[in-house]
Amino acid sequence: MKPIKVLTIAGSDSGGGAGIQADLKTFQELEVFGMSAITAITAQNTLGVQGVYPLSLEAVANQIDSIGTDIGADAVKTGMLFNSEMIQLVCDKIQQYQWDNVVVDPVMIAKGGASLLQEEAVKTMREKLIPLSKVITPNIPEAEALTGKTIQSMEDRQEAAKLLHQLGAQNVVIKGGHDLNSDQVVDLLFDGTEFTTYKSKRIHTNNTHGTGCTFAAAVASQVAKGKTIIDAVGIAQRFVHMSIVNSMQIGSGHGPLNHAAHRTVGVNHNV
Ligand SMILES: Nc1ncnc2c1ncn2[C@@H]1O[C@H](COP(=O)(O)OP(=O)(O)O)[C@@H](O)[C@H]1O
Ligand SMILES: Cc1ncc(COP(=O)(O)O)c(N)n1
């Protein structure tokens, strides 16, 4: 069988819970071949981010070229891109290699509050990267920053999703982890025509470090396999849910997910 290959362009999390590490664990568990281009190294653990060390544009370009000129990718996922120049470079490479299965997780701020994207880069994200995306997966604060609108209700979220679609994203998922008003977590998909909501029980836990990265990596792996976006988002939500429910106690702050949970608990990720 032809191997399915997925590239993540993102930051490294030394604590192993988010970023490149979460992406590669997710790819492996969802049975696609994972590859990475690292944009920045973070010194990070469950308590927060202790340091951010961006790589040079040359180092990032070279990593992407190594993959583009030899291995290729059935889908590309972007995470922490740090600044405007890095976003522009990633856009150029996506166009150069004609990658069209692009899942953009517009990472801005780590759960502990540390900035992972310079503020002026939001404009580049909006104008350059979003138009190249098959799916964009902001959380609520990221959707607010990208649209300039406050999101309180589901109607607000639908309006924001429409605006992000107008900016050129083919599909928009506004994730609901940050909507603490409800006992449910509701992720909202807009495909340009219809809204689809995905509901799961909110788990009351501190172990949510890396949920966004894991979610977008799971969507990318399913898109690479040729699943519809509607199915891909459902599979991703269930995979994240399972990985939070069965998280391990690692570190003394916001702990990581257990990406291998589905092996013992059983989740049909091919539905
Ligand atoms: N406490 C929770 N219980 C269950 N699912 C959650 C919880 N927090 C987040 N999720 C799920 O994790 C994914 C990422 O959501 P979110 O927290 O909004 O993004 P981010 O990690 O980018 O801030 C979504 O699919 C969401 O449904
Ligand atoms: C290198 C890196 N990239 C992304 C995140 C966001 O993580 P989350 O998935 O919890 O929003 C992070 N904390 N570190």
From TrEMBL:
A molecular function (GO) term: phosphomethylpyrimidine kinase activity
Reaction(s) catalysed (UniProt annotation): 4-amino-5-hydroxymethyl-2-methylpyrimidine + ATP = 4-amino-2-methyl-5-(phosphooxymethyl)pyrimidine + ADP + H(+); 4-amino-2-methyl-5-(phosphooxymethyl)pyrimidine + ATP = 4-amino-2-methyl-5-(diphosphooxymethyl)pyrimidine + ADP
Record SUPFAM superfamilies: Ribokinase-like
Keywords from the UniProt entry: Kinase, Thiamine biosynthesis, Transferase
Protein's pathway: Cofactor biosynthesis; thiamine diphosphate biosynthesis; 4-amino-2-methyl-5-diphosphomethylpyrimidine from 5-amino-1-(5-phospho-D-ribosyl)imidazole: step 2/3; Cofactor biosynthesis; thiamine diphosphate biosynthesis; 4-amino-2-methyl-5-diphosphomethylpyrimidine from 5-amino-1-(5-phospho-D-ribosyl)imidazole: step 3/3
Boundaries of every Pyridoxamine kinase/Phosphomethylpyrimidine kinase domain copy: 13-258
Keyword Transferase on entry: yes
Enzyme class per UniProt: transferase
The enzyme's E.C. designation: 2.7.1.49, 2.7.4.7
Gene3D superfamilies per the UniProt record, alphabetical: 3.40.1190.20
CDD domains cross-referenced by the UniProt entry: HMPP_kinase
Top-rank taxon: Bacteria
Annotated PANTHER family: HYDROXYMETHYLPYRIMIDINE_PHOSPHOMETHYLPYRIMIDINE KINASE THI20-RELATED (PTHR20858:SF17), PHOSPHOMETHYLPYRIMIDINE KINASE (PTHR20858)
Family: Belongs to the ThiD family.
Protein's name in the database: Hydroxymethylpyrimidine/phosphomethylpyrimidine kinase
